[in-house]
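## retry 2 of 3
previous attempt timed out at serialization; input unchanged, resubmitting
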Amino acid sequence: MLYIALLHYPVYNKDGKTVTTAIANMDLHDISRVAKTYAAEGVYIVNPAEKQRQLAQEIIDHWRTGHGADCNPDRRAAFELLIIKESVQEVLEDVLEKTGIRPKIVVTGAQFSGGVLKFTDLRHRLIENRVPHVLIFGTGSGIAREVIEMADDRLEPIQGPSDYNHLSVRSAVAIILDKIM
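## retry succeeded, writing output
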């Protein structure tokens, strides 16, 4: 059982300060669609700012029940996976409530090294047991230390053939889901 969390707080900005980032419309569209394609159980959008959560809910409602749902049933199906939460703790509580099992927390990051969980090992875990996993992706300039420290595992970073490693979160989600599912 795989759940995805897109974290907007706590994350770092380019200066290393802990911030809350804005929810991007295209993240909702692209991440929900790739999650649906790869059979994720749900996609959590995590943001403590009430106005941001309200805006995201309006977008989600448009594609679930509004004019968008009538015009594009495929998009509606993907948007059914989206769940808005205020904190990582709320995500973990929701997964526990849904599954009855404390989820394993796996964080992603472009700079991780040493002692990281390999994509293939995560794939095997997801196939071999029914323990839910929450795969956390950060926005801004990466997931804050406090979330990394609460994780059970740090996932190996995506490595292309060049030294450049600055993907959009939408691209990272797609690549990692393809590698593990």
